Amino acid sequence: MVNIILPVDFGDSTEDLLKGAIKFAKEIKGKLCLIHVAPADIGFAIGDMGFQYFPEVEHNEIKQELLSLNNLQQRILAEGVDCEHLLKQGIAGDIILDFAKEKNAGYMVMGSHGRSGIYDVFIGSLTKELTRRATIPVLVIPVH
């Protein structure tokens, strides 16, 4: 069975991305390996007293994201596609590529909003980065 890496961020485009990934997994009889990368600084805030760390904020956010991953996994399994998931904190591009290598993945599925130009200069594009750095084919699904 071919492992397919599916990074998710729980944004507005997750639904379209999920539908496309499920369709692709069914076509090639693959297994979806969901991954969500949370920022490493999720519990930090800056205020009058400088940087402060709030572990309860980080804990609650991670707990919610893990619940969301579990829900996505259950939806995928209900569609008849094998699935597993992972949540990590850190730099998304590096963690996703490490996960793909660890799972000996055959494909990666990413979404594209179709933005370009000045947006990429200031924000960057994880899809763009991963299509450039990945050693496996990356299927890019347009999401709106």
UniProtKB/TrEMBL annotation:
UspA domain: residues covered: 3-142
Pfam family, one: Usp
Record InterPro entries: Rossmann-like_a/b/a_fold (IPR014729), Universal_stress_UspA (IPR006015), UspA (IPR006016)
Signal sequence range: none
UniProt family annotation: Belongs to the universal stress protein A family.
Protein name per UniProt: Universal stress protein UspA
Protein source organism: Kaistella jeonii
The organism's taxonomic lineage, starting at the top: Bacteria, Pseudomonadati, Bacteroidota, Flavobacteriia, Flavobacteriales
